[in-house]
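Appendix C. Worked example: Dihydrofolate reductase
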Amino acid sequence: MRKLTYFIGTTIDGFIAAPDGTFDLLMTYVTDDFLPHLVGEYPETLPGPARAALGCAEAPNVRFDTVLMGRGTYGHGLAVGLTSPYAHLRQIVFSRSLADSPDPAVELMADDPLAAVRKLKQEDGLGIWLCGGGDLAGQLLPEIDELVVKQYPIVAGSGIPLFGAEFAPHAFRLTDSRVFERGNVILTYARATD
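Step 2, the predicted output written as structure tokens:
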């Protein structure tokens, strides 16, 4: 069975974006030792233009072959004319507001995200990457098998939380951690089974 991984950047206080949805504050902490790690370990999580700029446009998918996005997350690329940000992956956007896909390579789904993910997990292939946002992550929390949290050394105070969900604790266990030169940390968690 395929695994759903929420691979996401966050502040120390658990915000994935500013209140207006922008995430520029996190990008200032992409350091010289951090970026090569991402390129080497998670090349498919870089959008097409970044892959081209970093010389890894032809890098094979290592962990994921499918990306899930909420409408807000997908909207960041649309705002700059990028209609297919992850052309090297199967791209699925959950939206009730978009009637037609801006790009034939992007699938729109207005269905229940949980049912859709359960079906995707039954298919053959690599893992499924939940790219964001926080509301979609909150809806999919019961199906998230792994969290890979890129924690940046900044406190935002407010913004879009890592999960937009009702109070309902879900246990995970730390399986890996890595600290980078400016205090960036990558924390990997697996869903606790006991």
